[in-house]
Write a structure and sequence with these properties.
Elements lengths: L1 E3 L3 E5 L11 E3 L5 E10 L4 E7 L12 E2 L1
Antiparallel strand pairs: 1-2, 2-5, 3-4, 3-6, 4-5
Length: 67
Amino acid sequence: MHIIGGRILVVQCDAAQLPRISGEVVDRRMKPVGKVVDIFGSVSRPLAAIQCRLPCLVMSGERLFIK
């Protein structure tokens, strides 16, 4: 995971279950994190850019989910 500018979070995605653009992203407690704004990278190891609602406070290694 990488944080860009405090509001954009770049995460590794599961290639078999890609999120949809503008999909709502939540943490394991179902607390909203932000929305998917872009999917990029290779087909086997895609990345997603998530625009956080507030400054990103997600810990490295924490799993995120699409609602």
